[in-house]
Model the fold of this input.
Amino acid sequence: MRIVLGVGGGIAAYKSASLLRLFTEAGHTVQVVPTEASTRFVGIATWEALSGHPVSTSVFDAVDTVNHVRLGHEADLIVVAPATADLLARAAAGLASDLLTNTLLMARGPVFFAPAMHTEMWNHPATQANVAALRSRGAVVMEPASGRLTGKDSGPGRLPEPSEIFAAALAAAAPVGAAAGRLAGKTVTVTAGGTREPLDPVRFLGNRSSGKQGAAVAEAALAEGARVRLIAAHMEVPVPAGAELVQVETALELRVAVHQAAAETDILVMAAAVADFRPGELAENKIKKRDDGADPVITLVRNPDILAEAVQRRAELGSGPALIVGFAAETGDGTSSVLEYGRRKLERKGCDLLVLNQVGRSLVFGQDTTEVRILSPQDAPGTEPIAVAGTKAEIARHILDRIADELDAPLPSH
Done:
């Protein structure tokens, strides 16, 4: 694939050197088009050495090839990283003040922006309006990461890691190369994050889920050419670029969103950490400490089993997702092992696959690595599924490979 890598004038430009290397090592041809300001952070010689191609910032170089037109016409994908507030504004306004903005105006293929700037710049109404304008025209604008920025401040506005940009940008180019994806033409709905069940206007019952695994599954599905809908509860990671976002907070809101999505979903992956219980009553005002020292009594009620309901509705309607995948975060005890609890949950839920992992204070939730076993009703009695360990991105690819294998095989009638 022919990629134009635009580099904006921010200190995060140094990360784009690693992004360039990821693209070239994956076999793509990359033409780097930096802004003049960006060369104060990373010089042209670096881009030429890493890309193997001449690099310019001016529309007056390579005039004989009409470079400012040719680059945009020939590119299968344009990636701008970092995309500064100024660069987003110029792109949104349709300005053509340098080679990069000329190239963006001439683009025929997908355009992907990875913003990086200070939090106040990112949150400014002008920047948000520019982002909305670009997205409305079909460009993909990735959400920035949250973390340490230049100086002592931190917050949203940090450039995501090159590996994350690499995966999201290739997913944005799926219309160009989707035929190679094993899930091309499929719609995948993924639930992610932890639900929050309100107790009063300021407090809630929640869990330790970060949403990392669900987001990784959504990203892997995008890379396989699928249309992806992400139903997200509370998440500590950005929504993958290219995914359709449905935001929810509570288990009941998640339930409604899943039922609505099921009718037009080929694959349903229930990776969200759904609270088993919610407060029986929602206090209208903040619950105060009583002067007499008495402790409040909170009555919990059971939340619906959304996964089991999705399986049951599919059976009753005779339609719905061809494959329903559940997740089980289990802890073993003196009575049963994690695997034994997982097998019982698979039978109880009735889903087609169950991704099982062991959880605890320092396990899975919020971590970048995990270990899973994938259980199926078709497993031979007495067999123990192989445990697969790795980063959550690697585990997501493993899960998507298994899903694609299941779709390739004759599925049992539901």
The domain at 2-177 is CATH 3.40.50.1950 (Rossmann fold).
